[in-house]
Amino acid sequence: MVIRLMTIIERREIEALLSTKWSLWYGRRKTGKTFYAREKLRYSHYFIVTHGRDIINIETGETLSFNEFLKVFPLLLGRGRIVVDEFHRLDEPFFSLIQGLSGKGELTLITSTRHYFRRFIGVNSPLLGLLHPIEVGLVDPRDALKFIYSLGFRGKSLVELAVLVQEPWLAPSVESLGEGIFKGLGWILQTYVPSLVGEIFNEEERELTHRYSAILESVANGKRTATEIAKEMFSRGLIQKETHGAVAPYLETLVGMGLLRRVRVYGRKRKTYHYQHVSPVVDFTYYLNSKYGFMETGLPEETVERLFQERLRKYVESFFERLLSKHHALQPVRIEKPNLELDVALLRNKKLYLVAEVKWREKIREKDIRKAENKFDEAGGRINLLIVPDKESLPREPENAKVFDWRDVLALS
Fold first, then answer.
1. Which residues face 355 on adjacent strands?
2. What is the pLDDT of residues 29-74, one digit of tens each?
3. Is 12-135 CATH 3.40.190.290?
4. Nearest Cα to 158, choosing from 149, 167, 171, 150?
5. 3-class DSSP state for residue 46?
6. Is the domain 141-312 a CATH 3.30.360.20 member?
7. Torsion-angle region of residue 228: left (phi > 0), alpha (psi -120 to 50) or beta?
8. N or C: which end of the chain has fewer CB within 10 A?
9. Residue 131 and residue 20: Cα distance in Å, rounded?
């Protein structure tokens, strides 16, 4: 019998910090913090803290009480790296103990709550400046591409599977099923996404109310601004006033949890934002739920596959936006001008630097290229990209843009 171990997705944002003496890893649930730490860190002791404040040594199975842990922790710290997973559940006096031991030994703290992380870096925090913080979020698109490439995929499939493994908990399914994952996606999402979102709220000590769920559905269903979301919430009878202020606290919480992101609309005198799901997988699940009650009733596999393929272009656009913004260190924005909507718009020094149009289909026509050329002329960016699955399928190259396909994407990785 051959046992195949899951390939590790190398995470460039973490790799450089593995030897940092004192570090703090934070991010929402299921982003691979624990798995990566156990596989990549050299540690002498790895402890995980339960909700009841018991501390379990995962190597020996020994369970320590909070008081017992406080006694042995200073003794162990000088004998190799210590990892404390979900350390925020310990609270005081553990935080003060860490402050008193600053600079001694090697320590990695891990938390699945962004709420507590903000407390740790706040002005009055005893941990301020003691640990090097790193957010472990979705997998960097460049690392996702490298992982899928290592599995043997090329061309259009390379990018489409990389879109999925931005959620690292989907990597084992992609590794096992390959492109077959699209057929089984419905069962996977119905099983895992509601639990994932529930766990995120639980760690942040928030209750997943109908209002939060409705906002997640509204955003997935195309409501982009706070005004549009408020209108949708009011029509459902979930808020008393159809105003920005009625939904602003909920949006702020969802952004703080890492479930939503906000992107500034470029060219407006008054700051205006569009809201989007951070995860394409969560977005798609809430889209299905808003249309079909998916989380309760499910859908046939072929229906889920067809609907995902219909929305895949949107997720590919977001993937390239993340990829290009990270590679070039640029700020994503949204362009809202009459007769001009761009798939990707990135700023450098508050000026439009890179714009891209994504034509993610097998056959691209002459009129598609002309339309993209007109958009590039009107936008006035310094770098223009036409992104396609394979440049060899184009009738011609655009006159004012570079063509970007899966080979160029892979080269960035």
1. 345, 384
2. 899 999 999 999 999 999 999 999 999 999 999 999 999 999 999 9
3. no
4. 149
5. strand
6. no
7. alpha
8. N
9. 9
What's the CATH code, domain 315-412?
3.40.1350
Domain parsing of the chain, residue ranges: 12-135, 141-312, 315-412
Sheet strand arrangement including 107-111: 63-64, 55-57, 45-49, 82-85, 107-111, 22-26, 132-135
pLDDT tens-digit series, residues 225-281: 999 999 999 999 999 989 989 999 999 999 999 999 999 999 887 889 999 999 999
pTM (2 d.p.): 0.92
How far is it, in rounded angstroms, from Cα 62 to Cα 261? 40
DSSP characters over 353-369? EEEEEE--SS---HHHH
The phi-psi region of residue 30 (left if phi > 0; otherwise alpha if psi is between -120 and 50; otherwise beta) is left
Q: What is d(CA 78, CA 308) in angstroms, rounded to the nearest whole number? A: 51
Coil, strand, or helix at residue 103? Answer: coil
At 2, the pLDDT band (50, 70, 90 cuts) reads: very low
> What is the DSSP annotation of 161-208?
HHHHTTSGGGHHHHHHHGGGGGTSHHHHHHHHHHHHHHHHHHHTT---
Residue 5 in this model has a pLDDT that exceeds 60: no
